[in-house]
Amino acid sequence: MTSTIEPEVGKARRRKEDERLITGRTRWTDNLSLPGMLHLAVLRSPFAHAKIVSIDVTEAKSAPGVVAVLTGKDLDPESAIGMPCAWPITPEMKSPRRPILASDTVNFAGEGVAVVVARTSAEAHDALEAIDVDYDELPVVLGLENALAEGAPLVHEELGTNQNAVWVFDSAGAGTGSDVEDAIANAEKSGIVLKRRFRQQRLVPAFMEPRACVVDPTGSQLVMWSATQVPHILKTMTAATLGLPEHKVRVIAPDVGGGFGGKIAVLPEEMMATLIAQRLGKPVKWTESRSETMVAAHHGRDQIQDLTITANRDGTVTGLKVELLADMGAYLGLVGPGVPILGAFMFNAIYKFPAYHFACTNVFTNTTLTDAYRGAGRPEATFGIERIMDELAVELGMDPMELREKNWIKHEEFPFTTVAGLTYDSGNYEAATRKAKELFDYDGLRREQKERRDSGDPVQLGIGISTFTEMCGLAPSRVLGSLDYAAGGWEHAEIRVLPTGKIEVITGASAHGQGHETAWSQIVADKLGVPFEDIEVIHGDTQSSHKGMDTYGSRSLVVGGIAVVNAADKVLAKAKPIAAHLMECSEDDLEFEAGKFSVKGTDSSTSIQDIAWAVFSAHNLPDGVEPSLDSADTFDPENFSFPHGTHLCAAEVDTETGRVKLRSYVCVDDVGVVVNPLIVEGQVHGGLAQGIAQALFEEAVHDEGGTLTTGTFADYLLPSAADLPSFTTGRTETPSTTNPLGAKGVGEAGTIASTPAVVNAVVDAVRHFGVNDIEMPLTPMRVWHAVRHGSSAAGGLGSESGGGLGSIDATGGAQ
């Protein structure tokens, strides 16, 4: 039988959820208004480190509309466990207790010290001004190396150190490769040893919708609405943190306006709201302002990377050594300590290194904590390896693309086990690169670059390359367990077949803008042969979607989507004996296609809708068959997903002003089988914008007292569409061999690949001025200084946030 139904998978469907999102006919957490609801406002410390001598709330309590004013000492007895950290990366890791509100000491500027409960939000915020806090300032420690220096002020005196943990991977010790010290010694004799230091600046996730939560304690369950990426994790952690019975907690994530990792946390404010709602017996709402987001929501990145690469004179790489310092901020986030560890497995990237050593030291400073931000460790690793591959090419006098091609894994070598111990299941770096070079006109741009350089043109042209892969789809639970991660990597889905043949898909992957409702509908439409319009996707409510591990790490499709596929297969397995019974034939004589079971070689058939009604009526079912087609699946992947791609950037640099203009940007990504090309394109475009923004625009900067000087969008520079080029995108396809869809993750690919492509392009444009690095972001001021004075004046030797050119970051970025 030949199907006449066009497949849904691969179709560029417009997202079904967009109509309500774009028109505003939806519900965000801050839209909620419950009977008798009270509003919360948090007073935050202006100091990065200080003892709290006293807090006088007398005047605030008598302010109009105020119901209560609470301090940390009021809440601490009910929350003695402190805020959770789910990733203790070593047994010796130091994990200071983070209170819901500080009661004795504040450790970063923006830490909450008191909360006002009032009848309106305006009244709550007005009353904050009436709270009088007496602080005794303490010495502040900022900067990774400063924090580790002998005699440095301590963020947490009781720990006796600012060092949080040290995590090491060594290929010789792990049995995945040879000894990197031997590689260095051999290269010193007859090859090349190249060392570079790179800086990953601190970033703010800058999601569109500020964080918010509403807690209603008045029913049989405590119900929390939250603008979160992780409703299931939030439910479990709320119960564990506050000692609540988990079955009495329900968490709902309504439509959520972006996250980028910034809404993966379990927040002090969510715990605070829960305690206050229970104490008062009334619903309460907390919604942060944008300025609160900048100082109190977690930050991302913030690393110093010291890399040593060794190679033979012909360009064959022989070893890689990575020594990393990572800023945790003042406390530990939910998965913050493990973020650099995710990068540990990606510094080797697509290359065949025989020897590899990675060591990461996590450090406390008096700043907002850091945690997952789009890519979470993988962008940092890709930046480091792609930058130093460019530097190695210069040392060898090779074209940087030629060097990469010489050392990458060839398509016929897959599956390939890397020096970091991961097995890449599939890929074709040659195909993606070949297509990207064609779209980019690589050879033509190299000729133009030479002409400009020879003529002394004040506007120089640079070409940047980033050939990358990433591990995504957090992934086998046993592997995560071996890394001491508290949770698993599985995902859950259910399919309900309604009496009229309509379908409800329940997924544990909670979307915050990715298009799950559309993609899941396309998958199920093909699997069950029902119309796309007849499928409803339900998510984000721990009561209706009772089981899940949520959305982050490009895991939704390659883990959650596969659970949907498997659940659909189970529906068909349940339907088959019923179809055989209704058509009075053997199951072996049946085939299923386009929504119908047919008897082979005949015109006899019955649709999935007919079977759904037969199950509902239950008048004529086989003996011993339950009247239900509903099915569920919990999928635990056997491996990570490994998308890859080649990104090429042409940048024009005005050497007289330092201005950078991206002339063209080409990326060819391989994300396996594509369910919806329109969604993939949107994910790539958004990812590119964020990666380019790190290269050129964004940086969270503190002054020497620990105050965030880039606390508004007037100072923290986000690009608009006018600041970005029109992207040229393409795809190649090597299906994943570890899941039935053949899909690979896409949500973080653009961010991971684009930052080094842009920086490599700018450095390439001005290298003949003695520049081998410019610290990000590449503001006009930094680029201009580099052209005038070389890398040392451009932050390229590892100056830290708050030092060096930090004082002119905002000015330079605004030019």
From TrEMBL:
Compositional bias per record (Gly residues), positions renumbered to this chain: 794-806
Listed SMART domains: Ald_Xan_dh_C
InterPro entries in the cross-refs: Ald_Oxase/Xan_DH_a/b, Ald_Oxase/Xan_DH_a/b_sf, Ald_Oxase/xanthine_DH-like, AldOxase/xan_DH_MoCoBD1, AldOxase/xan_DH_MoCoBD2, AldOxase/xan_DH_Mopterin-bd_sf
Claim: Acetylation is one of the keywords in the record: no
Cofactor: Mo-molybdopterin cytosine dinucleotide
Keyword Oxidoreductase: yes
Annotated ranges, domain Aldehyde oxidase/xanthine dehydrogenase a/b hammerhead: 23-139
Gene Ontology molecular functions: iron ion binding; oxidoreductase activity
Annotated keywords: Molybdenum, Oxidoreductase
Source organism superkingdom: Bacteria
One Pfam family linked to the record: Ald_Xan_dh_C
Region: Disordered, residue numbers: 794-815
Protein name: Carbon monoxide dehydrogenase
Species, as recorded: Amycolatopsis azurea DSM 43854
